[in-house]
């Protein structure tokens, strides 16, 4: 990036590391699926950390676990509305759904009962399941957002049951290795930062413990590097390789539940945190474990993402750093839009474009890349949606009021489009065309003064 951009980015992390006394801090900006800039402050064993220095990811682990659950869904091995008991029978949580666990709306207790799992050696699945009786469902399932580490312990077991091997082996084979994330491991390997707690009133540090969390490991076990985490940030932004279809990751980024109900700036999708910040819609995840803080966030609309890793228990505004890096990168070096070029369009599809009316309300239908369609009111206000070809001559709504609904183009015998049928709404070339099957019919006397 430009020298002025790089200095602004470096200054942001330098101020954070110095002001909030982080033993070390490494950060990066991600563009086009790779690191466009990286920087570090502080030291690890006497030298500056780099893109290959491991830190604990904490709850960023959850987003990788969630991606694996969506792989299973896309393969038809589960439905997000399935009850947990269908795949992990015998627990007291069996009526909760997979989607509720993914989005933290199950109402299940935030932490596994007993000693704090992040600072104690973990037990096996049987121990966790027995510690989660029905009374550990604290809130009515589906009623609100309630972050639950314990819920992701359950999802880890679900993955293991459906694949017949540990959740970690599944993630390694089906997500980490295909994405080239070879330095993402359950325990520290090679050069890594030690976790520290910084004294609140003196410039001294205390070592934090590190251990195997057992059945709770899917909630926050993984260690990784800036280079590997950059690949994951790109994945969340839509550069998914062969691991998941981009539409599935877009589904993960959709807001499923709002965290701060009064302001609507933060919420959760299917395993991803969703944020609204300075007019942007962002997705990713933060992580916190004793001795470590982490964040990886991306703006899927611009493709710019950022990450930050530090080995301090608290004090560092890790999410704020990451958001600021995205803003600095895009403010100093905004992305240029791709050059427009004409493309080939199916003549039958071209015949659908133009003006259509729902009742008296005019709409424009446009062709988007890939044979997608856009149907939106000419006024710019109202129900607008994009539609993706279904492969059978129809289109499926992707967003807005018509998300999931089917759009059909109805034609005369000679192939001329006569009207559009969308979720029982009839769109006609002229307002209330009497030749079209307008619900309720059209008054035979027509328009009048």
UniProtKB/TrEMBL annotation:
The keyword Cytoplasm does not apply. Gene3D superfamilies: DD-peptidase/beta-lactamase superfamily. One of its GO terms (molecular function) is hydrolase activity. It comes from the Bacteria. Residues 17-315 form the Beta-lactamase-related domain. Residues 345-429 form the DUF7586 domain. InterPro entries: AmpC-like (IPR050491), Beta-lactam-related (IPR001466), Beta-lactam/transpept-like (IPR012338), DUF7586 (IPR056008). Signal peptide: none annotated. Keywords: Hydrolase. SUPFAM superfamilies: beta-lactamase/transpeptidase-like. Pfam families: Beta-lactamase, DUF7586. This is Class A beta-lactamase-related serine hydrolase. It comes from Amycolatopsis suaedae.
